[in-house]
Design a protein that fits this description.
Strand content: 35-45%
Structural class: alpha+beta
Largest sheet: 5 strands, antiparallel
Radius of gyration: 16 Å
Number of helices: 4
CATH topology of the largest domain: Alpha-Beta Plaits
CATH superfamily of the largest domain: Aminomethyltransferase beta-barrel domains
Distance between the termini: 22 Å
CATH architecture of the largest domain: 2-Layer Sandwich
Length: about 170
């Protein structure tokens, strides 16, 4: 998956303008699926974005569309909304991501994740949490594109093989 770090006082406003659904009231610690349309109303990209802080988001894009989405966002900010205070950085190569889906996914990730409560009450659907994966700092999203219980575990890219082999 592509990953774009979006920060600044207008970060939520930018997301509100480029996605077809609202972002201004998304709570910190929550995720939302978003669909982007191009100028002709055709699907441009989609993905899940997590609100990391008041003015800080982590957008995931389709793997092949990451550079295109970042360029598109930068073009809008530079040409149409130049007064917008928002900064975008590609962080795709900073993270290794493991998707774990299925009825046993909680038991599987529980074997490597610590410092996080995986219960439904503490970690509801469409939220994210910090944790440690095989001793490495991680961001974990509880999202699903399969219809099953699912997690996306994100660790620094230099620790990907270590976590995978744990």
């Amino acid at each position: 998956l592509g990953k774009i770090d979006i920060q600044g006082p207008d970060a939520a406003k930018l997301l509100n303008w480029v996605y077809t659904n609202p972002w201004l009231k998304l709570e910190i610690g929550k995720c939302r699926y978003g669909l982007m349309l191009d100028e002709n109303g055709m699907v441009f990209d989609d993905g899940v974005t997590a609100r990391l802080g008041e003015n800080h988001f982590l957008m995931t894009t389709t793997t092949g569309g990451a550079a295109r989405v970042l360029g598109w966002l930068e073009r809008w900010v530079q040409t149409e909304w130049p007064d917008m205070q928002v900064w975008m950085t590609s962080v795709t190569d900073h993270w290794s991501t493991f998707a774990v889906a299925g009825p046993n996914s909680r038991a599987v990730v529980k074997k490597v994740l610590t410092e996080v409560d995986l219960s439904n009450e503490a970690f509801p659907f469409m939220s994210w949490r910090t944790a440690r994966a095989a001793g490495v700092p991680a961001r974990v999203m509880r999202i699903s594109f399969s219809g099953e219980l699912s997690y996306e575990v994100n660790v620094p890219s230099n620790a990907g093989a270590h976590v995978w082999n744990a």
